[in-house]
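User: quick one - fold this with magnesium ion bound?
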Amino acid sequence: MDRFDQFSPEHVPFLDGRLKRMLIGGQWVEAASGKTFESRNPATGQLLATVAEGDSVDVDRAVTAARRAFNGPWSKFKPYERQQILLKLADLVERHFDELSLLDTLDMGAPISRTRANKRRALGMLRYYAGMATALHGETIENSLPGEIFSYTLKEPVGVVGAIIPWNGPLGASIWKIGPALATGCTVILKPAEEAPLTPLRLGELALEAGVPEGVINIVPGFGDTAGAALAAHPDVDKVAFTGSHITGQKIIQASAGNLKRVSLELGGKSPDIVFSDADLETAVPGAGMAVFANSGQICSAGTRLFVERRVYDEFVGQVAEFGRGLRVGNGLDPDTQIGPLISEQQLDRVTSYLSIGKQEGARALSGGSRITDGPLASGYFVPPTVFANVRDDMRIAQEEIFGPVISAIPFEDIDEVIQRANATTFGLGSGVWTKDVSKAHRLAKGIRAGSVWVNCYQAMDPAVPFGGYKMSGYGRESGLQQMEEYLNVKAVWIKTA
Ligand code: NAI
Ligand code: MG
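Assistant: Sure. Structure tokens for the protein plus magnesium ion:
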């Protein structure tokens, strides 16, 4: 560990040993219950901070603060003024990016090379939302009623937003919810994941520094079935923006029924990644590998069902396994680490149980296949990049989201068959196609039922391009104009002029 001294927690002022409190109405406060929970580094088990544990009472306080801000001073802010705040926040995030990326690495384990590389995306998002703040508008609409009656629409902020995020990219996920709320004039209660609450709390400090008025952003860390459930059910919350598992997504919909709040859901996947024999296989090997191994497979749109055309299957899948074996697994603080630990013991159990299931089902692990149990990594939650061959469509490892660095490689014969098999899943989030044949690429882009299709690349993301799911991967879109609509109501206004 000595090599990583420069990154040790003592060098992060935020990790000063004091209780990390929640943000309600512009104040940093303890939980009403006085309860706290611990946040630990999944690579080492090291305690990083003790955090105030919010529950329904705190959620209620936060919703009251958010409602007061929404009805009060925040509603007087002009788009330009909201834009200035977003730009200021972007500048602060830029200035403190080393600290924020380090916090992400410490709290959820992702390699520092990865969390640092997210800089352009994080800043790009904040500045995109800043641009959007002054670009939103209603329309005048020509109607056909007799007489003189004029109609137009107003776009209005939906109101108080409950944002519930997972742990697999705390900084990015927080910006993805806070940004559109600020751009549209909503107020927000952010509920970070219990596994990784620290970066969102630090972002809250920067938001206050950027001039976000009290009550506009509230941050209530806590657990899902207490704080999260209270937010999803709260009668004075107008919308819930959720990212996480489809099972929790279903609970959110049920909880939202009480006041019929609007819901947007970005859920999991079992995304197909399809490799044709005519592809540039040299790029496709690392492409298909990192489509799953990045972030230790803890990415909702990971391309976990790797369909490979039969005549190159053995060779290609062998090369992906070799690529996986060559990746450096380790503590995220090591600048050379490419694959960090899984987030928690629970996630480790989940992933290793799928490794056993795969073997029982008759799949063969060409690389990885079990947890790392010796050397310095034995005390963390480390699973090496795993490639399963001999996988059939009906195996559980080909149907269920594992959320670990596990590829299920499946052979196919032709294009119509692979489209049909790619779609034979309850999910529909991401998908990949590797081919040099432009007509194949277009046919797959049209044929695949998923929110994103990546051709000869994987996981490209941009603040201006919508991202989201078909089927059980959820509904609603994040990024792009479509995300703005999720945070806006449309009002029709009729004016009789004669
Ligand atoms: P989860 O969906 O239970 O948790 C995500 C967020 O929802 C957390 O903030 C959690 O506190 C909150 N939550 C949990 N139960 C809730 C409830 N009843 N009401 C309101 N909020 C609630 O996911 P978890 O337990 O972290 O991971 C389980 C599996 O879910 C993973 O193995 C993976 O397959 C999938 N997942 C998918 C993610 C994605 O990006 N789509 C992210 C995280 C997990
Ligand atoms: Mg959970």
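One thing worth noting: The domain at 5-267+473-492 is CATH 3.40.605.10 (Aldehyde Dehydrogenase; Chain A, domain 1).
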